[in-house]
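=== RUN LOG ===
request id: a7f3
mode: sequence -> structure
chains: 1
length: 536
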Amino acid sequence: MINVLGGIGLFLLGMTMLTNGLKELAGDALKKWLNRFTGGTISSVLSGTLMTMLVQSSTATTLITIGFVSAGLLTFVQSIGVIIGANIGSTSTGWIISLIGFKVNMQTMSLPFIALGVFVQLLAPRDFKAAGGLFTGFGLLFLGIDVLQGGMASVQDMIPFDSFQADTMGGKVILIVLGLIMTVIMQASSAAIAATLTALYAGAIDFEQAAYLVIGQNIGTTATALFAAIGASTAAKRTAMTHVLFNVATAIIVTFGATFMFKLTEYVTTTIHDGFDETLGIAVFHTLFSVVGAIIFVPFARPFARMIEKIIPEKGSFLTRNLDDSVAKVPGVAVEVSFNTLQDITKELTTVIIMLIRSQKRTTEADSKLNQIDEAIEKTRLFMDSIQSTSKKDRYKHISLLHALDHLYRLAKALREQHPNSLQLQPMLTKKWLTVLEEVLMIIDEDSRLPEISMLLQETSAEMAAERRDKRNAYFENSVGNMVELETAVSKVEALLWIDRLVYHYWRTTARLAEYQTATKKSRHGEATKDFALTD
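=== RESULT ===
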C-alpha cells in the first residue's frame, strides 16, 4: 500500500511541476490563443481542448477561463464551450499513460528527465528555470507510474475488488462512488485515472470496473471547481456550476448507455490498435465520455447559460465582481482583471466628482458611493498583492496598475478630507473641470482612448497648477492690501490647493492606466516593453 500512495504522490508532484512549468512558459501565449480563438461555441470547445492538452490541466484552463469571463474578454456562453473542451483535453493524460506508460521501462525513461530538469533549475538563467520544472515534472510523473505499478500487485490482494462487480446496478453505483472519492482525495482526475489504468494493467480490476471508476472520476473532478467557488466571484460560481452539471449529466447518460459505449469503445480501440488493448480502451472510453457530453450540450449552450445565470444571479459590489482569489494564480489574467476593476473604480469616482460639483454640497448618495469605492480600493489592493507576476511584461504592467491604485486611493482620500463647500470658492475652476470630466465620462469605457484621456487631463492639470501659483499669490496680496480678510484668502487658497490635488491624482490615475494599455498593445504586436517613462 505504501508503494501505491508513494506512486500517487510522485505522480501528483510531477503533474503539478509539469503544469506550472507549461503555464509559466506558455501562459501569455495561451492567454492570446484563448482570446483570439473563442468566437462561437465550437471554436471555444476546440480552444479549451487544445489548451488543456498543452498544459495538461483542466483546472488551469478553467482558472484562465474564469479570469477571462471576469475581465469581460469572454462571454459566459463562450466559457461553457471552453469548459466542455477542457473536459475533452484532460483525457489526453490517459492516452499518454496507455500508449507510453506501459510500453517502456518507466524508471529508465524518467531518471534522465529528472536529472536534466534539476540541473536546468539549478544552473540555467532565470528565464529558463521553468523549463527545468517541466522536465522534472515529466520525469516524476512517469517515475510515479513505475512505483504505482510495483505497489498495485500487492494492493489487489488487500482490496476486495471482486465484491464490486459491474454486472449489477449496485456494483456500478459503488464503483462510480469509489471513482468520485479517489478524485476528491487526490484532488486531480489525472492521478485517479493513472491509478485506475495501473490497476487495470496489473489485473486488479477488469475493463468494465475501470470504466465505471472513470465515470465517477469525471464527477469527482468537479470538486476542485466547487471548492474554488466557495466565497469566490459570481463568474467562478457559474463556471463551477457549469462543470458540475455537465459532468454529472454526462455521467448519468453514459451509465445508462454503457452497453452502447462499451461497443463503441471496442470498435474505436480495435481500429486504432491491432486487437483490443484494455488500457488503451479506457483512454478511448474516457475521451468518448467527454465527446458524447459535448455533442449533447453544445447545441443548448445559450439556454444552458441562461439557466445558470438565473440559478446564480450577480451579487456583491459591481466594482469588485471580477476579483477572484483563484484567478490570482494566473498572473497574466489577474493583471488584466485588475486593470478592468481599476477602470470601473475610476469611472465611479468620476461620477462622484461630477455629482459633488453639480450639487455644490455633500449628499448621502455621494457618501454611499465613496464608501463603496473605498471598499473596492481595499479589496483590489489585497487582490493585487496576491498576484505573483514573474514575466517582465506582467511585472511592468502590474507596477503600472499599482501606481494607478495608489493615485485612486489618494483621490478618494482627498474627496473625504475637504468639505465640498470648497468648490463654491472656486466656481470658474470647478466649472472648467466639470466640462473635462463630462467629456472623460463619455469615453472612459473605450480602452483605446485612454492615452487621449491622459493627455487631456495632463493639460488640465498643468493649467490648474498655473492657476494655483498665480491665484495663491494674488489672494495673499489682496489680504495685505485689505481687499479681503485673511481668513477668506486662506479658505480660497485651501480650496485652490484641494482642487489642484484632485486634478493631479485623477490625471496620474489615467496616465498609469494608459501606460498599461500601451504596454498591452505592444506585447500583442510582439514589440519590446521599455522601462518606465512616467514618474509620480
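=== NOTES ===
The mean pLDDT is 80.
The longest helix spans residues 486-524.
=== END ===
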